[in-house]
Amino acid sequence: MNKDIEKVLISEEEISSRCRLLASELEMNYKDLEEPLLIVGLLKGSVPFMAELMKRFTIPCEIDFMKVSSYVGTKSVGDVKINKDLDHTCDGKCVLIVEDIIDTGKTIKAVKQMFYNKGAKDVKIVALLDKPEGRQVDIEADYVGFTIPNEFVVGYGLDYDQKYRNLPYVGVLSPSVYTK
């Protein structure tokens, strides 16, 4: 897999260090909640990032997952499809959406609105990666690990054709892999 990577954009050490800082910031901002924070990971890409953050929390929290899709190959098609909804209610809860990357913003904007429609009291977004050059809608994460250029990246949960998720870093995938 490493041979398909043009360059490492963010190292494993950089990710770990940034996750520690994000977790501290999140802890401070949610420390006075009267009920557990509902942390929702967007499957599948958010799993490594969510695990890295959660293991550092001392605040009460619940976890759940949603699986949504809007990509075909390397392009966002804009239609957000829910493949797996929450198992529990978010009515009246503070929700923290954990996302691997915000690119066009269409998916995360739709998901955030879904939570408000389901009765969430507050909805915040934490994203490992933000790619503002790709943005097509007005949405920003409340917490961002790294801002990256408009390149196709894989690793640390991000995939191409279900491959590369297990790389411990974020790297730029060689175009020769996906332009065959």
Q: Summary?
A:
With about 180 residues, this protein is α/β, with parallel strands linked by helices.
Explain what the structure shows.
- Belongs to the purine/pyrimidine phosphoribosyltransferase family.
- With 180 residues, this protein is α/β, with parallel strands linked by helices.
- The chain has a single domain, classed as Rossmann fold (3-Layer(aba) Sandwich).
- It contains 4 helices and 9 strands.
- The chain has helices at 12-30, 47-54, 106-117, 175-178; strands at residues 5-10, 37-43, 61-72, 75-84, 94-102, 122-130, 143-147, 153-154, 170-173.
- The strands form 2 sheets. It has a 6-stranded mixed beta sheet with strand order 4-3-2-5-6-7, sandwiched between helices.
- The longest helix has 19 residues, at 12-30.
- The mean pLDDT is 93.
